Amino acid sequence: MIKLYTTPSPNCQKVAIMLEETGLPYETQEIALLKGEQKKPAYTVVNPNARVPAIFDSDTGLTLWDSGAILIYLADKTNRFLPESATQRALTIQWLMFQMSGIGPSQGGANAFSRYVPDKIPWVIERFRRETLRLYSVLEGQLASADYLAGEYSVADMAVYPWVRMHGWAGVSLDGLDRLQNWCQRVAERAAVERTKSYYEPDMSIYEGEEFDKSTHHILN
Ligand SMILES: N[C@@H](CCC(=O)N[C@@H](CS)C(=O)NCC(=O)O)C(=O)O
Question: For the whole model, what pTM was predicted?
């Protein structure tokens, strides 16, 4: 049994998609980020980096955090969604890491600087949005030769989808990125992905215009 420490966020949705795709039995424990639960000792014993997601696998006794590492672990555990051949495996991990080191930090920066900080600095917002869009254009190019990022549907698609679907929250448009839009649709329509939506794809318009109180906003502190 896998225990998933989670919250409605893109990095957590990746792992939920993988668990749904593989059918591994799992239970969840929500970590409420706005209450700062990720920074409380009860959780930092699980993840000293104070971030979600994390998992505990009672079959192996392993506690693991960082979504990319978790996806690779679950792929190896089930022999699914990460090709066996060394070259295909390397290419799949390349696209997974492209999300982890590029799209996540850039789009996360666009979110933080356009939504969460009280003092908005246009140059900074633009810098993160432009970089996110540049990374999206790399995906668009890759999708010219394949339906999925590494050829077959894989952990790379599971990692990128939750971020690309949230492009609007970061203030980035998919206009002109037709292949990326079609790919997003293809992934979104998978039954396993559908099953994650009620929890991981809330209506973000409820947050529109919300002013965050800096003193109690744990993600900023
Ligand atoms: N590299 C980490 C990043 C995890 C991460 O930043 N998670 C966010 C939610 S998507 C979080 O826990 N934020 C809480 C905070 O910043 O205090 C991963 O991919 O698992």
Answer: 0.94
